[in-house]
């Protein structure tokens, strides 16, 4: 049994082929980083047009690398929620076309649930029930995951997602797009205690996040209160210290809420997905915290952290339950 999966939820055009046993035969990703870099963030219209250009060549490459033919595909899966609506529509429309042409079932997959399922793929075994943290450019949230398809939201961000905050702070510091790896690289040169940036909700039992105030604190520390378009971008030690202190604040906030959630839910393991989970400081902090709490930590390898189509292997679970999509499957930009 072979599945073909598509991913176009944001700025990565991806396709993957995997088996009913969750063996990944191919996982192809076409990045749009160069297209969005001049704008220091993802431009929805540009992303949608790039998906239109890239998707079918990416599908062809995924099938070729898997060593199969399109006629061998037994099911088509697609991330149809959440994400940028125009970008999602490209993938959903293509998936419908392919499923109809091949005469096979169509399955819609939740992109956020897919990030947690990437941990299942990495572990190679059942990891449920677990506490799930999805931390990316568009989402930062904690879930009680009774099984792969049963996610209960425990709390999320009230404003910016962590990845979005990385992108915005990277722009403030003149480091460019994408923000995550650029800020992390700069932070290695700085002192994470140089600036006392806020950790929102650190004294609150609620499992919520907020990064907007942190972003503003970095802006003021960088340029002062009288900010103008001509304000100089810091360089040298100050910029490195700003990056390191910002990164430390994000890592502390994420780690604290994960610790609180583990204690409140009594769940045995923490599964972390999303692009920000590629951050090495976050990985180290979560590893140390889970060791102290006696919880198992599962974070996928880097190629399964960022947006990709292999994590749509969650479709294997939906196929087993007979949860197929109708021809009216639509793009849903909002989560749940």
Description:
By secondary structure, the protein is α/β, with parallel strands linked by helices. The protein folds into two domains: 130 residues, Nucleotidyltransferase, domain 5 (2-Layer Sandwich); 176 residues, Nucleotidyltransferase, domain 5 (2-Layer Sandwich), CATH 3.30.420. Helix content is 43%, strand content 19%. It contains eleven helices and ten strands. Strands 3-2-1-4-5 form a five-stranded mixed sheet. The protein has a five-stranded mixed sheet with strand order 8-7-6-9-10, with helices on both faces. Strand 7 and strand 8 form a beta hairpin. Helix 2 packs parallel to helix 3, helix 5 packs across helix 6 and helix 7 packs antiparallel against helix 8. The protein is globular and about 60 Å long. The model has no long low-confidence stretch (mean pLDDT 95).
Please supply descriptive tags for the structure shown above.
five-stranded mixed β-sheet; 10 strands; Nucleotidyltransferase, domain 5; 19% strand; 2 domains; 336 residues
Protein topology:
Layout: E1 2-7, E2 12-19, E3 24-31, H1 33-36, H2 44-66, E4 75-81, H3 85-102, E5 106-110, H4 111-123, E6 130-135, E7 140-147, E8 150-156, H5 162-172, H6 179-187, H7 212-223, H8 236-265, E9 269-273, H9 280-293, E10 296-298, H10 302-305, H11 315-320
Parallel strand pairs: 1-4, 4-5, 6-9, 9-10
Antiparallel strand pairs: 1-2, 2-3, 6-7, 7-8
CATH architecture of the largest domain: 2-Layer Sandwich
**What is the global morphology?**
globular
| Main sheet specs | 5 strands, mixed
Major β-sheet strand ordering: 3-2-1-4-5
CATH topology of the largest domain: Nucleotidyltransferase, domain 5
Q: Which series of helices and strands comes N to C?
A: EEEHHEHEHEEEHHHHEHEHH
């Amino acid at each position: 049994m072979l599945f073909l999966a598509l991913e176009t939820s944001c700025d990565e055009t991806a396709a993957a082929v995997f088996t009913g046993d969750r063996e990944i035969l191919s996982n192809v990703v076409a990045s749009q980083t160069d297209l969005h870099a001049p704008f220091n963030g993802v431009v929805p219209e540009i992303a949608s047009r790039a998906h239109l250009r890239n998707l079918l060549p990416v599908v062809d490459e995924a099938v070729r690398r898997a060593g199969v033919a399109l006629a061998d595909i037994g099911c088509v899966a697609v991330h149809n929620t959440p994400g940028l609506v125009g970008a999602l529509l490209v993938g959903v429309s293509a998936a419908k076309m392919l499923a109809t042409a091949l005469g096979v079932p169509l399955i819609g997959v939740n992109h956020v649930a897919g990030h947690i399922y990437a941990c299942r793929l990495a572990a190679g075994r059942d990891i449920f029930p677990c506490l799930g943290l999805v931390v990316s450019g568009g989402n930062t949230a904690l879930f009680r995951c009774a099984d792969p398809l049963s996610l209960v939201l425990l709390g999320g961000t009230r404003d910016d997602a962590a990845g979005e905050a990385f992108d915005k702070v990277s722009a403030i510091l003149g480091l460019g797009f994408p923000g995550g790896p650029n800020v992390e690289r700069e932070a290695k040169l700085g002192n994470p205690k140089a600036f006392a940036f806020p950790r929102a909700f650190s004294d609150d039992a609620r499992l919520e996040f907020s990064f907007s105030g942190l972003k503003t604190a970095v802006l003021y520390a960088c340029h002062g209160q009288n900010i103008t378009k001509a304000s100089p971008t810091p360089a040298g030690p100050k910029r490195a210290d700003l990056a390191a202190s910002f990164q430390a604040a994000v890592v502390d906030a994420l780690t604290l809420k994960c610790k609180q959630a583990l204690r409140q839910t009594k769940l045995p393991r923490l599964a972390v997905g999303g692009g920000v989970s590629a951050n090495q400081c976050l990985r180290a902090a979560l590893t140390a915290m889970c060791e102290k709490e006696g919880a198992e930590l599962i974070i996928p390898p880097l190629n399964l952290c960022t947006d990709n189509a292999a994590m749509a292997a969650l479709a294997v679970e939906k196929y087993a339950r007979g949860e197929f999509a109708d021809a009216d499957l639509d793009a849903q930009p909002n989560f749940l």
